[in-house]
From TrEMBL:
Protein name: Bulb-type lectin domain-containing protein
Bulb-type lectin domain span: 26-146
Alphabetic keyword roster: Disulfide bond, Glycoprotein, Signal
Claim: Nucleus is one of the keywords in the record: no
One Pfam family cited in the UniProt record for this chain: B_lectin
Lineage top rank: taxon: Eukaryota
Signal sequence range: 1-25
Length: 176
């Protein structure tokens, strides 16, 4: 028979471990998933994280991308001009292929249309800090239907370009 102190320690360890929440990080959001306050996407190399945040003591929240090692350093903000007034935001891919932020009453407060009509879309946070909307089966950058690098905030990241994109017709510039 097992030594009672060892058996007791083993049983207590199992109980404590079963009470801990399981941690799961993903870099991709499918069209049937959503991200809510407190949930995030993390790039594959754990360099960048995307989620809802509140700046300082504000009760308003925005969707943003920040460095994992420095969460206070936000490098991109989606709904800077239209923040959520509570902590009930949801990010999802709409049936029309748009990346949308919904408020508590499921009204769209921010959206970005894809530039290409594609089938099964996913949103993926890359190690470059770029959030891309792409076809599920394609990893080619030429196949991105939308990307945050085309809409910079106030931070330039490696791989980001500013100016006129003759291919997409978009003009990228910094905002603060």
């Amino acid at each position: 028979m097992a030594d009672p102190p060892i058996f007791s320690f083993f049983c207590n360890s199992i109980i404590v471990l079963s009470l801990l929440p399981l941690s799961y990080t993903a870099d991709t959001l499918s069209s049937v998933q959503s991200i809510r306050e407190g949930e995030t996407l993390v790039s594959p190399g754990r360099k960048f994280e995307l989620g809802f945040f509140s700046a300082g003591s504000s009760k308003n929240s925005c969707l943003g991308i920040w460095f994992v090692v420095s969460p206070e350093t936000v490098v991109w903000v989606a709904n800077r001009n239209n923040p959520l007034t509570d902590s009930n935001g949801t990010l999802k891919i709409s049936n029309e292929g748009e990346l949308v932020i919904l408020n508590r009453s499921n009204s769209i407060i921010w959206s970005k249309n894809s530039t290409k009509v594609l089938g099964n879309l996913v949103a993926q946070l890359l190690d470059s800090g770029n959030l891309v909307l792409r076809e599920c089966n394609s990893l080619e950058s030429a196949d991105y239907s939308w990307q945050t690098f085309d809409y910079p905030s106030n931070t330039i990241l490696v791989g980001m370009t500013l100016g006129w994109n003759f291919k997409t017709g978009l003009e990228s510039h910094l905002t603060s």
